[in-house]
Predict the 3D structure of the following.
Amino acid sequence: MPESNILPSGKPRIDSLELRGITKRFPGVLANDHVNFDVKAGEVHALLGENGAGKSTLMKTVYGLYHPDEGEILLNGKPVHISSPTDSINLGIGMIHQHFMLVPSLTVAENVALGLPSSRGPLTDLDAVSKRILELADIYGLRIDPSAYVWQLSVGQQQRIEIIKALYRGAALLILDEPTAVLTPQEVDELFVIMRQMTKDGHALIFISHKLHEVVEICQRVSVLRDGRMIGTRPTSETTKQDLANWMVGREVGFTPDRGNVQRGEVRLKLENVQCGSDRGTPGLRGVSLDIHSGEILGIAGVSGNGQRELADAVTGLRKITGGKVTLENADITNLPPAEITERMLSYIPEERMRDGMIKDFTVAENMILREHHKEPYSRYGFLNLKNISSNADMLIKKFHVKTPSQETLAKNLSGGNIQKIVLAREISRSPRVIIAAQPTRGLDIGATEYVREQLLEQRKQGTAIILISEDLDEILALSDRIAVIYEGSVMDIVPRSEATPQRLGLLMAGVHPE
Amino acid sequence: MDFTIILQAGIASGTVLLFATLGELFSERAGVLNLGVEGMMLIGAMTAFSTTIATGNPWIGVLAAMLFAGLISQIHAFIVITLQADQVVSGLSLTFLGTGISLVLGEGLSKAGTVSLLPNFSIPLLTLIPIIGKIFFTDQSILVYIGYLLVPLSWYYINHTRPGLHLRAIGEYPSAADALGISVFRQRYFYVFVGGMLAGLAGATISLAVSPGWFSELTTGGQGWIAIGLVIFAQWDPIRAAVGAYAFGALRRLILDIQGPVLLLGFANPFYYNPYLGFFLQMLPYLFTVVVLVIGSREAMRKRIGAPAALGNPYVRGERGK
């Protein structure tokens, strides 16, 4: 770390930030229970924990979005009071949110200038802003075009703008909230280069992540939160991924799911040159051809927004197919109504589980029969058979370990993991021939993720053909038999499991055909 | 029929639509749909006319109209911004409320006789330009000229000033703006107020300049709804809004005037002999509004034509996105 306590951006360094005994209560929940945490200049300190462990609450406290009920925050050894994001920005604390806080229809410079006073009074001073952006970009090695519109940029580039935005406001300490969740492996590498540069220059970084190998790779120290309590802080060099996972979950965790040996069978689902539009009216799929066999998981890898959603919609009948053909067990299902496709035992685990996977204001039991509600044994002559619906719910709650106060609880009151278990229970229990699983573990904690993956592998063992659409490359690599990489609505290549490496897939995801 | 005279009158009548459309445009760019334009215009027309009768000064009338309509718009702002209620329902109610208030307070106003109106004048030199000078710069109300200025000013404000940048941000992605310390709530109140004032000005333009007087709810005759359709047609751009407003103003005049003469281009005028054809023509602008609103309500289409992404959604702090 350099001697000077002035950062290359020209702002003063933050030598240390310390949280002491932070306690935050929400109605019915103790989100943070006397948590101690600290970060120093020149280090990356990882904050690990499952969903609901209290990571976000703790970081929102640092950023001034929440006020702690007890405890204090010390900056360079002196107590500070942070009551709003403006306060924290003034103290030199920046936050890169998991969901980018960028306005897509504005340019990079406009996004950076938002909310700041202008040197030209009421008029914008975008030229001056652009100049400063280029200066910062040069210092930190961030390639960026200030006049580009945000919607034109890749996710990795958008993240760089978020970093620039924080640096522009003089951030000496950066909180990165799951920054790698949406990046390709190459983009993750680039981010790590930037992060290393920043710590070398004297910045302090807090890195929030689920991904243990990244924590081990980039961080000097790691702290684990569980159920609102700080389990401990250790140098990363003295821990293993297995230790960290067990700490997080509080029990032994199986890492690589058992794939078993499954003989792949006949083609169940066939896509031939399928084309369709996107929501923006541009081509969504530009001629996709895929075969999915019985007893096989076909992974669809790709950066978000390259046609994954359109693919799921097209197969399930939710989007009009403008060209090509979809065949399910030798029957043409192209542009059939979704209900008829469902009848042919195609199950769908949608990406937006809260919106498309269930009805939030229905009970658990009702959600569990959504696909079969119009048939016996759940209804007859148009009347619901409540006894059968209730016994079905009891059975599925037990079988799929759904944690719910009762089967009469409204779905919206459950956690993400339990909601996904309800969707999974409904879709799997009907013994489907084909399953489309879109981002099935996104936002789930390690325990629930483990469970969902086991269930998909179990289905594969029983001969179901499965399309697994996921932006999580680790998940694709762990579960798939073959991996199709999708880029701008086309399949770049289909790679067998044995030949798939993150590097090879990463290049394909970026649209590069290796020679 | 002299087409330049029709177009000249069309520009004046288009100015009404222009003010209302620009007002709604500001409100919608901030993310607030306000279907109460018609009601606010009636409030404006009634207030302008009655205040002018009482004070004898049409400028005080214009000012009162803008203030009263702006105040009424804040009811909508409170309901949809602070209470986070549905913008469509609240906006519709605002139209009913505005219509009701203006009918009650405007009782007897239609027999009040003539008032002093805002001045008409021609612009020297510009009026000499052939055809264009006659249409745009000859014997127009001062409000028409104010309209000419307001269009480029609005465009510049939205696209080239810092508050304009903030306006675009809060309509597209309010949580991003909020995270950077821009007060989404205060700004949205402000732009709803601006929308109300401009709707009030539109009403005043009718009762003090274009077709002076108070004719109860026929004063506006549904132009507030056309303005809402025009905002979508204009794709939330002030320049396109002006083109649309003047085109529709001209169309309205043409539809009225075409029913007058016995002969049209040397032939028997069908619109003169068959009034139903005239009714049909008069329906067209409203039909257009219905079609545009239907098209503009489709989610996919809205994305394509560039609707503010957060339009219609209340902003709740702490909820992510949109």
